Amino acid sequence: RNYARVVPADDLQGAVGANWAKDLGASTVYILDDQELYGKGLADVFDASANEIGLTVLGHEGIDGKAADYKALATKVNELNPDLIYFGGITQNNAGQLWKDIRNVGYAGLLMGPDGVYEGAFLEAAGDAAEGTYLTFGGIPPSELTGKAAEWRDSYKAKFGSDPEVYTVYGYVAGALLVDALERVCAAGGLPTDRKTVRDAVFATKDFNSVLGTFSIDANGDTTITAMSGSVVEGGEFKFATLLGGG
Fold first, then answer.
1. Residue 10: its pLDDT value, please?
2. 90: left (phi over 0), alpha (psi -120 to 50) or beta
3. Which of 69, 74, 82, 173 could link 105 by a cystine bridge, Cβ 3.0 to 4.6 Å?
4. Cα dihedral 87→93→96→102 (10° resolution)
5. Which residues on neighbouring strands pair with residue 243, listed in sequence order?
6. Angle between helix 10-23 and 37-52 (nearest 10)
7. What CA–CA distance (Å, rounded) separates 143 from 66?
8. Considering the entire predicted model, what is its pTM?
């Protein structure tokens, strides 16, 4: 293990997505992915979790992220009439065109994606087809931060004149954790330029007090804070919908 992260692991996002789909009333789902590590990984976990909680998976296949259109695929999926279509992937692999084609063939069911499409570029690419899309996010959006995190958000806005992006606070916490690790290395007589020593110090992080709350880094390099959230596209904007799992 040579890296750590302060956002929940992607496999958790796939699982909470499946559970949220069930909570939204879906009983049948069709799963698509962009065949890349992030997207397919999430889709595979969503698939496995869906089966575990009693959802019927009508199909699961990868798409060509550079295809001109997905009309044939959209028509095939629409004929199966799933309650929800899940896409594991990123905006840059043609998610906008995929959404447009799915809606253009008359599909009126639920659409869900991960934080790989939780960005303004997706809204621009999908246009009206994005409306009503449910999105999971491996963390909590700025508008829903509380306590010290909310104070940090307000200070950021006062200094820079705009709201922080969804991952900005996590970047801040990652930087703070690294500084803490460097200080611990130096206090023990080590060199802050010794990559292995610093990495070991990061992995040894326990009960680190951050603006997001107190957390540790586990043996896999993951944070013990696993709170996630769900948003929905309304009026061409992302709107917070609910907290999803974790704590």
1. 80
2. beta
3. 74
4. -50
5. 229
6. 40
7. 34
8. 0.85
